[in-house]
Amino acid sequence: MKCSNCGVTVNTPSKYCPICSNKLKHKGTNTIYPKIKRKGNIYLKSILLISLIITLICGYIDYEVNNKYTFSPYVGLALLSNYITLFYIFKSYKDLFKLLGRYGTILMLILFIWYMYTGLKILTNFVIPILCIVELLFVDIYLFILKRKHIRKYLGILIANVVVSFVPLLLIVLKMIDFDYIAHAAMILSIVNILILVIFDFSDLKEEILMFFNY
């Protein structure tokens, strides 16, 4: 703000002008430090958008296949609980990429154990492949943010894509699914992600691999 007496600009929360000692009238809480937005807000908005899109797609597929809503309400509730959980975790966790990786892995293991115990095909036909697609979309969003911030974690992103691509492949090979369209979509998205990363960010990826192996 400017001093009303001498006209000097003051960027500190001081009550008096450092030049003429005139009392300053602050319009707000000025500070010399900029306001920093947490990256979690971008992720949370992205998660909410993706969750709504997936819920709508599942509702459409559910109604077209079964002529009624059978599994889509459960998918919507699962995504809602997932969003609420991540909302509270994001507020206190620093490395969001590690968070997504660990959270996705734990959730995937829980779903596999649930399937082995109950034998529900809905888990392997829809829930697990959709979770793979969600994880891949999160990776895409993270990569977009990293490219803007000029931070290098390409190797971790490539590994994440490779790992996620094996999950729907495993479901198909072990014949654990009857409706394999979503699993194939997850595999295709993973392969596309890998190709984009290798083709367009090969030099950065190569440099990071050399740094990882101390070359």
Write the layout of secondary structure elements.
Blueprint: H1 40-66, H2 72-90, H3 96-118, H4 121-149, H5 154-173, H6 181-200, H7 202-212
Describe this protein's structure.
It contains seven helices and no strands. It is elongated and about 80 Å long. The protein starts with 39 loop residues before the first helix and ends with a helix. Helix 1 packs antiparallel against helix 2. 69% of the residues lie in helices and 0% in strands. With 215 residues, it is an all-alpha fold. It folds into two domains: 36 residues, no CATH class; 173 residues.
Q: Which class best fits the helix and strand makeup? A: mainly alpha
Order of helices and strands: HHHHHHH
The pLDDT mean sits at 76
- Low-confidence residue ranges: 29-37
Domain tally: 2
Largest sheet: none
What characteristic shape results from the CA principal axes?
elongated
Kindly state the number of beta strands: 0
Q: How many helices in DSSP terms?
A: 7
- Which percent range fits the helix content? 55-70%
State the oligomer. single chain
Question: What is the rounded distance between the termini?
Answer: 52 Å
- Strand-residue proportion: under 5%
| Gyration radius over CA | 24 Å
